[in-house]
Amino acid sequence: MTSLPIGEPVDGSPVVTRGLTKRFRHQIAVDDIDLEVPTGAIYGFLGPNGSGKTTTIRMLLGLIRPTAGSVQLLGHAVPGSATHALRRVGALVEGPAFHPYLSGRANLARLDAGDRFADRATASKRIDVALDRVGLLAAAGKRYRAYSLGMRQRLAIASALLMPRELLVLDEPTNGLDPQGTREVRHLIANLAADGSTVLVSSHLLAEVDQLCSHVGVMYEGKLVSQGPLDALRSSAVKTIQVDTDRVADAARVLAELGLTDISQNPNSVTGTLGAVAIEKIVPNLVNDDVPVLGFAVLRPNLEDVFVSLTGEGFDVSG
Fold first, then answer.
1. Do the Cβ atoms of 240 and 277 come closer than 8 Å?
2. What is the CA radius of gyration of the chain?
3. From the centroid of its chain, how far is CA 30?
């Protein structure tokens, strides 16, 4: 296994992997990935269930050993120097086991007592700060069994905030939540990033990543097929144009003659995939064919469009 040097993160990135690979017998779960999470980013680690996201996260946190490749977390090699890195990392992987008959505060106190790096003298204050950050201070005395799904997930995130954290790694933090709980967790993650934490969020929910993240890494069948700023990934996706007109059939014919594909006719508009067609040719050709152009737009691709352009297929966007 190769190793990255211990010291400052590559290019200032708190998470860097090189050639990271994990095999389980004859199955390759993660295949030679080079992951880089920039400082201050909300990095959406996106892919369908079974694409290798959780296995990658387990390697990042030193929970399982890579078959090949290397991990650098906050400037330290993992698993070799994991102890130095992980004390500055908050992680939520499948969630901690909370006791239903204990209060939220008592559950956090139990977890904090098991952390060998935690200062017992500051436990009460740190627990209240963590509860306050996730909006649960007023409900700290309520038993866990009375918490809503959103409150339970926020308490799980609070458990990752009991000590100062430079990096948060959250595996499917909105999994199983209702819309209200999802909004609560999404708002919390945005606030944590605004307060200076770098956040790596694993998710199979395209809409959530699209709304929340500044950067995205796309996993598919164990491979990292693309990563970068979300806006840059969008700009690399196949572009779709929309023409508003009252002569839909004629507009569709002109677009097809120009070479656009995936043409769709709507009551008052036509859409099509631009491909290699020069965008400046579209409106003049429509006008020359006496097709009135009442509106023209290049549609902003969503994350599903990006994923399809990278992999050739989509996946369940709703979970």
1. no
2. 24
3. 17
Collapsed DSSP state (helix, strand, coil) of residue 161: coil
Instruction: Give 189-212 pLDDT, tens digit per residue.
Output: 898 899 889 999 998 888 888 888
Cis ω on the peptide bond leading into residue 79 (within 30° of 0)?
A: yes
Phi, psi of 89 (to 5 degrees): -120, 130
Q: What is the mean pLDDT of the chain?
A: 87
For helices 179-194 and 123-133, angle between their N-to-C axes, nearest 10 degrees: 120
Q: Which two tokens stand for residue 96?
A: 């901690």
Tokens for 54, please give them: 């959780």
- Determine the Cα–Cα distance for residues 155 and 108; give it in Å rounded to an integer: 8
Distance CA(26)–CA(24), nearest Å, equals 6
What single letter denotes the amino acid at residue 244? Answer: D
Beta bridge partners of 103: 143
